[in-house]
Amino acid sequence: MQQYFRWAGNALTGDLGVSFRSGETVTSQIAERLPATLTLAVAALVVALVIALPLGMLSALHPRSFVDRIATVVSQIGISVPDFWLSIMLILLFAGTLGWLPSGGYVPLTEDPLAWLQRLVLPAVATGVVSGSVITRFVRSSMLEALGSDHVRTAQAKGLPTRQVLGWHVLRNALLPLVTVTGVQLAYLLSGVVVVEIVFSWPGLGQLALQAVRDRDFPVLQGAVLLFALVFLVINLLVDLLYSRIDPRISRR
Amino acid sequence: MSAPVLEVEDLRVRLRTPRGTAHVVNGLDYTVGPGETVAVVGESGSGKSVSVLALMGLLPSGSATVTGRALLQGEDLLAMSPDRLRRVRGPGMGMVFQDPMTSLNPVLTVGRQLVEGIRAHQRVSKQAARARAVELLAEVGLPDPARAVDRYPHELSGGMRQRVMIAIALSNSPALLVADEATTALDVTVQAQIIDLVERLQSEHGTGVIWITHDLGVVAGIADRVLVMYGGRCVEDGTVDDVLDRPRHPYTRGLLGALPDLAEPLADGSRRDLATIPGVPPPPTDLPPGCVFWPRCPVRGDARCETEQPPLTVVGSGSAALPHRAATWCGEDSR
Q1: 8 Å CB contact between B235 and B255
Q2: Chain A: nearest CA to B60, how far in angstroms?
Q3: What is the pLDDT of residue A251?
Q4: Burial class, A229, CB count within 10 angstroms (exposed 0-12 / middle 13-18 / buried 19+)
């Protein structure tokens, strides 16, 4: 008990203790790993949005069409497939059979941008596909809801050009719930890339945490868990703040 | 009489539904003259709203089939290209919808929603459109219009929002204004204000108005002519006096009989029970072969009622320009 309060007190000042194994401070170890994980999570989110936005919008604009059915099947597969399996398949295909990309590792952007990108693509796709599938579903349903709303009919009755109706009236309103989902997905990506990091030997926080478990290096593990929790809180806070910027019903009291 | 603003001929709307084809509107004919108000009445599901949404081209294109002719100032709305139709929405016809709480975009200011409507049809600068928006808001009686333009819909009351909707509908001075249950969601005093407003604007601009409602009190107050719809057909039309005072169709009589009579309590102080029309309207997927009202009709005075569809024919008084017509086999005296 006393030990916990001492740790918590120190944590508030940024001192998370010292690793049993390496003797380095936990803070410095985490700080060293954080950029890699951030890079991967953001890249995965970009992949997810690049997949989800066009696919979700197309499905919503042509419900029950061929595109919509394909999108539904693909996103269902995307949600169901475990990311480690997808990672292995991607490695087998692109690193093994085709030999286009390296199978793993990490090179800082500052050293060699091309090598950095080459090593980023596969893990980003592997993690992004799952999130992308989830977000596709949300884009589709919130677009459909916005398309059917009364104020969109008003916009059409005003004789606005279709592009303006879709951009300002459908998309703008469909984006509101999407911000929440994307925030949750980013938090999930930041803390949930553990498995993919290991498959691609990506030196991020997930790997650090797993290593700490193996070594019974609990100060490091504790630090990593604390950070994941913090990430969730911060992102949720950001989402709420963003909401008050984009939805006038919330900001003005 | 000058050239009509709108001439509808044999308008039919079919909708594909999971339960089969729904014949929602089955052959409507009517005209709206400049400065004239035509009320379309009928209960829910009688095809009132669908018939005007069809004119505006606002029905889902995938599942709706619209046939017939609808000449707006001589030009057929139903034969227009989508782009031409878009240009007509606004300057040709404006529409006010039933629910002012959901018909405005919640995340855009009132001013923006007016300005984009103006600028979609008129080549004016943003500043000029904004100035026009303030004028319009003043015209529809919004207090402090200069500040109201920067408000969001949720900051306004229902009546105020409906005024904004009217301002939007009128922003391009349409020849025809369609009010689809525009006062149904409002309380009675606000309803009266909105009706006054529309009547005033109408007399100033000479706009033709289609007023869709199920409130016969509103009809008596606002309309020049009435069109009673049932089962997607016009069962009776004519001037307000003809239809409301000398109804000929059993359905119209039923509707009028169902009005609550607040003035006269019975001798013992109690009030008589509200008269109703028993039963429900026929499903548009399965309309009766004869008179659409036959299954609920208390009269059924003719052998043809069940099997043969009565045509809309001139009955009783009414001038040649403003005939009183009813689609019924019932004779003059069959009450």
Answers
A1: no
A2: 10
A3: 64
A4: exposed
Q: Are A127 and A206 in contact (CB under 8 A)?
A: no
Q: How many whole angstroms separate alpha carbon A30 and alpha carbon A220? A: 8
% of chain B at pLDDT higher than 90: 22
pLDDT tens, position by position, B105-134: 888 899 999 999 999 999 999 999 999 999
> 């009589």: which residue's tokens?
B253
pLDDT of residue B318: 63
Residue A198's nearest CA partner among A185, A182, A188, A211 is A211
What structural domains and CATH numbers belong to chain A? Answer: 35-248 (1.10.3720.10)
pLDDT for B184 beyond 90: no
Of B56, B107, B116, the CB nearest to A157: B56
| Of residues A158, A164, A173, nearest to B90 (C-beta) | A158
Tell me, yes or no, whether B246 and B201 share the same domain: no
CA distance B226 to chain A (A): 24
Residues 64 through 103 of chain B touching chain A, CB cutoff 8 Å? 86-91, 94-95, 97, 99, 102-103
Cβ neighbours of B35 (radius 10 Å): 16
Q: Is there a domain that residue B334 lies in?
A: no
CA distance A249 to chain B (A): 7
Residue numbers of the domain that contains B101 = 6-223
State whether ipTM is beyond 0.85: no
Amino acid B272: pLDDT:
67
B88 contacts B50 by C-beta, under 8 angstroms:
no
Dihedral of the alpha carbons of B266, B270, B271, B273, in degrees to the nearest 10: -120
In 3D space, the residue among B181, B178, B169 whose CA is nearest the CA of residue B46 turns out to be: B181
Instruction: Give a yes or no: residue B332 inside a domain.
Output: no
Contact between A249 and B107 using a beta-carbon 8 Å cutoff: yes
Whether residues B70 and B199 share a domain: the answer is: yes
